[in-house]
Amino acid sequence: MIEKVSNLIFRVRILLAGECGRAPLYQKRFGIRFGSNIRITGMPSFGSEPYLITIGDNVTITQGVTFLNHDGGVMLLRHKYPDIDLIKPITIGNNVFLGAHTTILPGVHIGNSVIVVAGSIVTKNIPDSTVVAGVPARVVKSLDEYEEK
């Protein structure tokens, strides 16, 4: 019950921060850089390096979206390379919709005016004004084609 109340408070703070232009509590504590008018409709996972995430203006993050800034697989090589680590930033442009259960991998830049279809895994940079879908995500149409349809 406490977790549900905590999640609700978090979502309300994010929504108010987007509408009021003030940084939400999560941003202040963990360093995520949010633009204005951020909409979060479910609890995303900002991973273990949230300070490497930048989210532009007018972005919608739906339930189950996961931001992965690291490749944990390199842990298997720590016995050979004690200092090995693979972490990279994630950047989300302006006017972006991230569909439910989307996963964004390390080093990805999603351009402006992009729709990422639910269930997609974004493994590389996404150009502006596109709709992407799939595993791995690929461009399926332009935003203009989406609008016409």
Could you please describe the fold and organization of this structure?
The structure is a single chain. With 149 residues, the protein is α/β, with parallel strands linked by helices. Helix content is 21%, strand content 24%. The strands form three sheets. The chain has a six-stranded mixed β-sheet with strand order 2-4-7-10-12-13. Strands 1-3-6-9 form a four-stranded parallel β-sheet, with no helix packed on it. Strands 5-8-11 form a three-stranded parallel β-sheet, with no helix packed on it.
Main structural class: alpha/beta
- In the predicted model, the low-confidence regions spanning at least 5 consecutive residues are 14-23
Number of beta-strand segments: 13
Distance separating the two termini: 43 Å
Query: What is the 3D form?
Result: globular
**Number of continuous helical runs:** 3
Helix content: 10-25%
CA-atom Rg in angstroms:
16 Å
| Major β-sheet profile | 6 strands, mixed
Strand content: 15-25%
Order of helices and strands: HHEEEEEEEEEEEEEH
Spatially, the strands of the biggest sheet line up as 2-4-7-10-12-13
Mean pLDDT: 85
Keywords summarizing the entry:
3 helices; 149 residues; six-stranded mixed beta sheet
Fold blueprint:
Blueprint lengths: L1 H19 L4 H6 L2 E2 L4 E2 L12 E3 L3 E3 L4 E2 L22 E3 L3 E3 L4 E2 L4 E2 L3 E3 L4 E2 L7 E4 L4 E5 H6 L1
Parallel strand pairs: 1-3, 2-4, 3-6, 4-7, 5-8, 6-9, 7-10, 8-11, 10-12
Antiparallel strand pairs: 12-13
